[in-house]
Amino acid sequence: MDPNKAPMAAPRDPAPTPPHPLHPPPTPALLPALPLPEQPLSVTSLPVPDESQLPLPVLVLACDRSSVRRCLDSLLRYRPSATRFPILVSQDCQHPETAAAISSYGDAITRLHPPPHPDPLPVPPEHRKFAGYYKIARHYRWALGHVFNTLHFRAALPLLRSDPSLWCASAWHDNGKERLVDPSRPELLYRTDFFPGLGWLLTSELWAELEPKWPPAFWDDWMRQPEQRRDRACVRPEVSRTVTFGRKGVSHGQFYEQHLRYMLLNRRFVPFTNIDMAYLHRERYDTEWERQLREAQPGELRDLTEINGKTGLNGDSTGSKAAIRIHYHNRESFRAAAKALGIMDDMKAGVPRAAYKGVVTVVFNGRRVYLAPGNGWGGYDPAWG
């Protein structure tokens, strides 16, 4: 079998009813036959036609952590083709232990060498304590510019190409704690207005748009501003396909103890190339998304204490009939509901994490919950945070 081609799905009997457009059915006839027991730690897979077998590089940014070995070992373990998925590692710090760790991989990776930087780094006096964020933004700008402008790679995935309302695909679910997702459905993908980061895919055209105005610091929050997002969405998974490890970093462990350490990492292979991704196109997706919200049972925050999973996703009552819709009306009521659910309650430019059209969906005690705006959808209010 050609390792660069996905295995063909076995023939299936016709289904009596069409599959749910936003929740495509799993492929029980296919998954058990696949020899890979675990899922690569990579960006969310999307279908690539045979005629477009272009290189899709995996860019790893490193600084002063020799534990980058964990990341590189996982990538090398799971990537199906060195030609299709070259691994590029850019180290921005003069840290001997990390440099030695990267060099030990030899020809298995390509090492990028950022040029020397002016010292000291130009940081506004009021941001001196945030100097690390300025270094990260500078590193991202150089590394992405080098990949797209010097190495001429093109991240040409059909879904991003065919739908201008999408601008990235991410491997990360901001609310992807083990108890908040359906681990039996790793094939589920969603649209989100919140830029996830932490393992994401962009096209060279998008980089050409962003590079001239790349910020000196806090690049990810800058990406979440309306001026950059421009009402475009990202694709994100139900179950995260990448995780962050270790508490140490420029964020000083912010969110780690409460959220990040509990994220579930998918380890099941999903044949995305055999799944029709057309359901993620905006018009079709929005129609189904709105229907699911209408059919979800209206409830109140106090109802969360009565959800015990007996009518959960895997019980007799499945799908939208088992779902509950809880409304929020302002920033305070959203945060109260987020706290009750155990999801992240912060917002960026008014957009909650993992939200789409103001709605955040998770699984709570085995039951699908939609946290939705109660006054109709009128867009995000940046004043909310």
From TrEMBL:
Topological type in the membrane: Single-pass type II membrane protein
Biased composition (Pro residues): 13-35
Cofactor note: The cofactor is mostly bound to the substrate.
Biased composition regions of type Low complexity, renumbered to the chain: 1-12
EC number: 2.4.1.101
Subcellular locations according to the entry: Golgi apparatus membrane
GO terms under biological process: protein N-linked glycosylation via asparagine
Pathway of action: Protein modification; protein glycosylation
One Gene Ontology cellular component annotation held by this UniProt entry: Golgi membrane
Molecular function terms from GO: alpha-1,3-mannosylglycoprotein 2-beta-N-acetylglucosaminyltransferase activity; manganese ion binding
Keywords recorded for this protein, A-Z: Glycosyltransferase, Golgi apparatus, Manganese, Membrane, Metal-binding, Signal-anchor, Transferase, Transmembrane, Transmembrane helix
Cofactor: Mn(2+)
InterPro entries tied to this protein: Glyco_trans_13, Glycosyltransferase_13, Nucleotide-diphossugar_trans
Catalyzed chemical reaction(s): N(4)-(alpha-D-Man-(1->3)-[alpha-D-Man-(1->3)-[alpha-D-Man-(1->6)]-alpha-D-Man-(1->6)]-beta-D-Man-(1->4)-beta-D-GlcNAc-(1->4)-beta-D-GlcNAc)-L-asparaginyl-[protein] (N-glucan mannose isomer 5A1,2) + UDP-N-acetyl-alpha-D-glucosamine = N(4)-{beta-D-GlcNAc-(1->2)-alpha-D-Man-(1->3)-[alpha-D-Man-(1->3)-[alpha-D-Man-(1->6)]-alpha-D-Man-(1->6)]-beta-D-Man-(1->4)-beta-D-GlcNAc-(1->4)-beta-D-GlcNAc}-L-asparaginyl-[protein] + UDP + H(+)
Residue ranges, annotated region (Disordered): 1-35
Cross-referenced PANTHER family: ALPHA-1,3-MANNOSYL-GLYCOPROTEIN 2-BETA-N-ACETYLGLUCOSAMINYLTRANSFERASE, PROTEIN O-LINKED-MANNOSE BETA-1,2-N-ACETYLGLUCOSAMINYLTRANSFERASE 1/ALPHA-1,3-MANNOSYL-GLYCOPROTEIN 2-BETA-N-ACETYLGLUCOSAMINYLTRANSFERASE
General function of this protein: Initiates complex N-linked carbohydrate formation. Essential for the conversion of high-mannose to hybrid and complex N-glycans.
Assigned protein family: Belongs to the glycosyltransferase 13 family.
Protein name from the UniProt record: Alpha-1,3-mannosyl-glycoprotein 2-beta-N-acetylglucosaminyltransferase
Source organism of this protein record: Coturnix japonica
